[in-house]
Design brief:
The complex is a heterodimer of chains A (426) and B (221). With 426 residues, chain A is an all-alpha fold. Chain A has 18 helices and 4 strands. In chain A, strands 1-2 form a two-stranded antiparallel ribbon. In chain A, strands 3-4 form a two-stranded antiparallel ribbon. In chain A, a hairpin with a 4-residue loop joins β1 and β2. In chain A, α1 packs across α6. About 5% of the residues of chain A have low confidence. With 221 residues, chain B is mainly alpha-helical. Chain B has a domain of 126 residues: Cytochrome Bc1 Complex, Chain D, domain 2. Helix content of chain B is 43%, strand content 4%. Chain B has a two-stranded antiparallel sheet with strand order 1-2. In chain B, β1 and β2 form a beta hairpin. The longest helix of chain B has 23 residues. The C terminus of chain B is likely disordered. Classes of the chains: A mainly alpha (426), B mainly alpha (221). At the A-B interface, α1, α9, β2, α12 and α14 of A face α1, α4, α5 and α9 of B.
Chain lengths: 426, 221
Amino acid sequence: MENNKCRTSLQILFAAVLLLTFSFKLSAQDGANLFKKNCAVCHTTSDVKLTGPGLKGVFDRVPKPADAWLTAWILNSEKLIKSGDPYANKIYNDYSKAAMTVFEGQLTEKDVAAILSYVKSPPAPPTSSGPVANADSEATEEVRGGVEPVYLILGCIVLLNILLYTLRSVRHSMQNSANKAQGKSETPEITFFEEAKQWISGNRRIVGVISLVLVFGGMKSCWDACYQIGVYYDWKTQKGYKPSQPIKFSHKLHTDDNEIACQYCHNTVEKSRHSGIPTVNICMNCHRGITSGPVYKEKEISKIYAAAGWDKDNQKYTGKENPLKWIRVYTLPDHVYFNHSQHVVVGKLECANCHGDVKSMTVIEQKNPLTMKWCIDCHRTTQVAMEGNAYYDRLHKALKEKYAGQYDVKFTVEKIGGLECAKCHY
Amino acid sequence: MDMNYKTIKLAVAGVALTLVFASLSSCGVRDENTPGVEFMPDMYRSPSVENYGTYVIDGDTLYSAMLPVKGTIARNYLPYTYENSAAGYEAAGLNLKTPLDMAHRDIFEKDGEVLYGKFCIHCHGASGAGDGKVGLKLPGPPPAYDGALKDLSEGKIFHSITYGKNSMGPHSSQLSVEERWKLVCYVQKLQGKKEPVDSTKQVAAVATPTTAGEHSSGGHH
C-alpha cells in the first residue's frame, strides 16, 4: 500500500515535470511567434535599433524588478509614462516621443511572460559559413592596370629616341677614330633625316610596303572612329551603353527577386514626361529596415545612408545630405520631344517595350538605339490600343465612320499622325 | 618591267596584310562606359535648363533635380493638418474622413487595387497578410490587414501612408492625396470591410471619370 502510494506520487511528479518542461518549451515557441507578430515591427532581439530600442540586455537596463517593470510597460506604456516613472519618461523622450502600442486587452500577462522569456534567450542568429552563393561575377570588381597604355608607348618612344641619339654619336666618334688610325680624313656628321633619306632611297620596296600598311591602317582607324560618334549601340549584338553607376544597384534583385513594381521607384512615369529617377527617400522607405544586401552586404546600402544623411546607429536623419550622381543612360537630344505618360498611359506600352528585359539586368543597359529610325519603325507598325481606351473614344468613332467598309484599315500610330515632324520636333 | 612587277606583288601583299589586321580588330568595338562622341553637341544640349542636369551659374554649381523653394505651394495643394506624431495619428483616426464620394466606392477600389499592385504589394503581400517578398525581409513583417490591423480607421490608414508608420516609410512623395484615399478604399476591402454597394449608385458611377480618363487629360498633345 505504502509502496503503491509512493509510486503514484512519483508518477504525478514525473508527469508534472514533463508538463512543466513541455509548457516551458511551448511558451518559448509562443514567445517567438508573439514577438514576431507584435513586437518585431519596431524591436529586434539584438542591439539594432528600429523605431524602438534593440532589446539585447534590456533586463539589465530597466528598473528592477525587470520582469514586473517590463510587463507593466508592455501592457500599458502610456499609463507608466503618466505615472511619472523616470525611466519610462526617459525612453519615451529618447525615442522622439513615439508611443508604443498599448497591448492591454490584446496580450495577457502570460503572453507577455512568454515574450519576455523569448527576449531573454533569443535563438542565435544564423552564421554564414563559406562563400556566399550569390557572390558570382557581380561581386568581382574590375581591376585595371596601373599605367595607361598611351603613356607606356610615349615613354618607349622617348627612350628609343635617346638610345638612337647616343648610338649614332657613338658610331660617329668610333668611325672618326678608325679613320684617324687609317690616316683618312674625318667624315662629316650628317643629320638623322639625311641618313634616313639615304636609307629610304636604297630600300624603296620595303618603304612602299610600310607606307601602304600605314595608309590602310589609318583609314581603318578613321572608319572605327566614325563608329564612336553618336549613342553607343551595337545593332548586331544589341549591346548598348552600360555605365557603372555610383551605387551598384541591381534592377534584377529589386524587380525580379523582390517583385517591386517599376512604378514604385519611377513613380512619375504615368504623370509626367519623365519617368523620374527615385530620390533617396524612396530608397529609405525599405532600406531603413533592410540594411544588408545579398551580394555587397552593407557596403552599397551604406552609400544610400550617406546620401540621405541617415545615422543608422541612432536611427535619425542628420540633415547632412549628399546628392547621388546617377549616370543617365537613356537620353534624347534636346530637339526631340518624348513623353513617358503619353506612351505608358494612353499608348498602353509596357516598360520593356523600349527598355528591354530590365528584370534580368544587374547593371542597367541601353537596350534600344533611340534613333529616329527606331522611333519611326515602331510608329509605322504599332497598332494603337483604341478599344476601351477612354482617350481615343471620340477619335475611334470618327475613324470608324470615315473608313467604314474598308475593313483592312489598321490604326497604326502613323495613321493618327505619328509621323508628323512636329509631333516630336518643335 | 621585271622590277615593276615585283613592286606590284609587294603592294598586293601589303594590302592583304592590312586587311588581315583590319579584320582582326573588329569594327566599332566600344567601351560600354562611354556614351559615344556627341555629334553636333549644340543640337544635343540646349542652353535651357533640363531635368537632371548640373549647371554652373555665376560660379554656383546647381542641380536641376532639387526641392522647390521653401514655401512653394503646388496647384490644388491642400495642407494636411495632422502632425506626424502619436497624437496626430490618433487625431487623424478620430476626425479624418475620406473626401471621395463613396457612392463610387467600387471604382475607387479598382483604382486602388492597381495602385496597391505598384506601391504596396511587395511588402504587404497580395492579400494584405504582410507576406510580400520585401516585407518578409524587413526586421518585422507588416501586420495583416485582416488581423492586427482589422479595425484600423480610414483616417489612421491615410495618416500611415502619408507619414509612414514603424518600419514603413512615408509615401506622400509618391502618391497624391487622391491616390492615397483610393488606396485606403482598397485596404478597407482587404480588411474585410466592404460595404454593400447600392445598385442604383453603381449605374451613376460608370459615368464618372476613371483613372485612365484622368491621366489621359494630362497626356501631352
